[in-house]
Amino acid sequence: MSLVNGIKRICESIGKDNNPAYVVVAIATAKGIFRPLFTMMDKKESPETKKYTALREGLTEVIAIPTYLACGTLAGKGAALVKDPEKAKMAKHNLRFIGVCAAALFIIPGLCSLIIKPFTDAIFHKNDKKKNEPARLDVTSQAPELNTQDSQDIGNISQVQKTNPIFKSYHLATFTNNGMRVG
Questions:
Q1: pTM flag (> 0.70)
Q2: Mean pLDDT of 8-18
Q3: Which residues contact 50 (CB under 8 A, 6 or more apart)?
Q4: CB within 8 A of 20, min separation 6: which ones?
Q5: Helices (H), 17-156
Q6: What is d(CA 28, CA 53) in angstroms, rounded to the nearest whole number?
Q7: What is the DSSP letter of 147?
Q8: Alpha carbon of 30 to those of 89, 90, 97, 109: distances in Å?
Q9: pLDDT tens-digit profile of 23-75?
């Protein structure tokens, strides 16, 4: 029964000094390994998309692990202000938990926003500066020549009336009615 006793001792020691940062670091480590791995195994996505997504997921966890540890430790330091040792131990655990939650909710997303986008842009979009420039127009080219048939039709109102109903209504309103009538 030494295996059972060993497991019992491990569970007791974890329960006595339970640091929430250790739990989230274990989860972040597993996510940092397996999420990029599963992303790269996706056969439906293009290779560029898979590389970008896997790098982004891996970098997120690389940023998260030290942030969880630092925030949990720093928040736990606030328990030193409590005088009673029993209450200080309880305050340390609670403050560590609050520090880890604050890291997950505010600090890690902020750090990821600051770090990941410039990092991935530097890796994947080095030569895309030319693509972002606006297209330049060639102003030296010649204008298209006008069709002489079109210019003759403009002079002949009856021909234009047959082919263009908008001009026909304009023609009827302006040329047949001399001026506007109200009523």
A1: no
A2: 81
A3: 39, 40, 42
A4: 72, 93, 96, 97, 100
A5: 20-40, 47-76, 85-102, 108-124, 129-132, 148-155
A6: 16
A7: P
A8: 29, 29, 20, 19
A9: 999 999 999 999 999 999 999 999 999 999 999 999 999 999 999 999 999 99
Reading the block at residue 150, the tokens are 């079109």
Measured between alpha carbons, how far is residue 144 from residues 76, 100, 135, 141, 148 in Å?
Answer: 77, 68, 21, 9, 12
CA contacts within 13 A on the Cβ side of 23: 11
> What is the 8-class DSSP label of residue 146?
P
Max alpha carbon distance in the chain (Å)?
114
**DSSP-assigned letters across all residues of 111-145:** HHHHHHHHHHHHHH-TTTHHHHSPPPP-TTSPPPP
Q: Between these two residues, 9 and 165, which has the higher pLDDT value? A: 9
**Which residue bears the tokens 């020549």?**
145
pLDDT for res 171: 47
Total Cβ atoms within 10 A of residue 76: 22
* Domain ranges for the chain: 2-126, 149-183
Give pLDDT tens digits for 152-175: 545 555 555 556 555 555 544 444
